[in-house]
Amino acid sequence: MIVRISTEGQYEISDSDTAELNELDNEAVASCESSDEAHFHEVFARLLAMVRTKGTPVADDELVGSDIILPPPDVSLEEAKSEFQGEGLIPG
Amino acid sequence: MQQQVVKLDTQARQALAAGQEDLARTALERKNVLQTDLQGLDTQIAQLEQQQEQMTASEQKLRTKIEQFRSKKEVIKAQYSAAEAQVRISEAATGVGEEMADVGLAMQRALDKTEDMKARADAVGELEASGTFEDLTALGSGDDDIDRQLKQLSSTSEVDADLAKMKAELGTGSAPKGELGSGGGESAAPADAAGAGEQAGSTEGQI
């Protein structure tokens, strides 16, 4: 699965790691719904760290569309609310 | 601003030498506020420089992707049937399009941030010029009362330390004079200065 962190770049995440990504995605949705800013930033930081450490950066000369586009690292809770709602960025 | 800091420091020294400790304290307090502002500006400059580096890196990446797209398109056209080539090229175009949109977003965010900083600086400048603020330290970045009080405390102790240092410097400078005069070598510099003034005044009076 190709994941893009907006303003940063694309990463390839293996299928075995998508479950963890989905969990963090759902947690981010929950924190957005309760408008818990501190919790959201903490979860979102973990989500980004997970993509950066477990994902493999997509080479600059590779041309692929992303399956998921995450908001930029400096996103505010208000901006994130439109992304992290319902099922989140990853269905399920 | 840096010049202003030096000027305020000199003024504080002069005020202290003239025995006007309150005036010296005010000058030092202002100097302290300016120094805090300067630190804030340094942080902002560092942030902007970092942003600039990021933008340069994204520009390079986008350039590589576009070049790659050009050559890939030619390869695909030569290798596949027209219909399949169209599908593959449009896939590659999605990749490039997404990258472009992302660079656009990064630029927009960088611009917004810079505009925010500029608007804030302009507003503070205008209010400062119109003398709206009695206490510039109250202009924290979203600080609450406790933050402000803590800052005030550290600022006060810095001012006290500065003042004490200045007194010590001036004290050593005028010590021999004090010893020759009244012999009150231990008294603080302002008292010495004031004493000297009185003496001069009384001498004049006698003449």
Features:
heterodimer, A: 92 residues, alpha+beta, four-stranded mixed β-sheet, 4 strands, 42% helix, globular, B: 207 residues, mainly alpha, 5 helices, 86% helix, 0% strand, rod-shaped, disordered C terminus
Helix content of chain A: 40-55%
* Percentage of residues in strands of chain B: under 5%
Number of strands of chain A: 4
State mean pLDDT of chain B (0 to 100 scale). Answer: 78
Oligomer: heterodimer
Order of helices and strands of chain B: HHHHH
Strand order across the largest sheet of chain A:
3-2-1-4
Q: Structural class, from secondary structure content of chain A?
A: alpha+beta
Query: Biggest sheet of chain A, in brief?
Result: 4 strands, mixed
Q: What portion of the residues of chain A fall into strands of 2 or more residues?
A: 5-15%
Overview of the molecule:
- The complex is a heterodimer of chains A (92) and B (207).
- Chain A has a 4-stranded mixed beta sheet, with helices on one face.
- Chain A is of the alpha+beta class and 92 residues long.
- The model of chain A has no long low-confidence stretch (mean pLDDT 92).
- Chain A has helices at residues 18-33, 37-54, 77-81, and strands at 2-5, 9-12, 56-57, 68-70.
- Chain A is 42% helix and 14% strand.
- Chain B has 207 residues and is mainly alpha-helical.
- Helix content of chain B is 86%, strand content 0%.
- Chain B has helices at residues 2-17, 21-79, 82-129, 145-180, 189-206.
- Chain B is rod-shaped, with a radius of gyration of 32 Å.
- The A-B interface holds A 4, 6-7, 9, 60-66, 69, 72, 74 and B 54, 58, 60-61, 64-65, 67-69, 72, 91-96, 98, 102, 105-106, 109.
In short:
The complex is a heterodimer of chains A (92) and B (207). Chain A is of the alpha+beta class. Chain A contains 3 helices and 4 strands.
SSE layout and pairings?
The complex is a heterodimer of chains A (92) and B (207).
Chain A: E1 2-5, E2 9-12, H1 18-33, H2 37-54, E3 56-57, E4 68-70, H3 77-81
Parallel strand pairs in A: 1-4
Antiparallel strand pairs in A: 1-2, 2-3
Helix pairs in contact in A: 1-2
Chain B: H1 2-17, H2 21-79, H3 82-129, H4 145-180, H5 189-206
Helix pairs in contact in B: 1-2, 1-4, 2-3, 2-4, 4-5
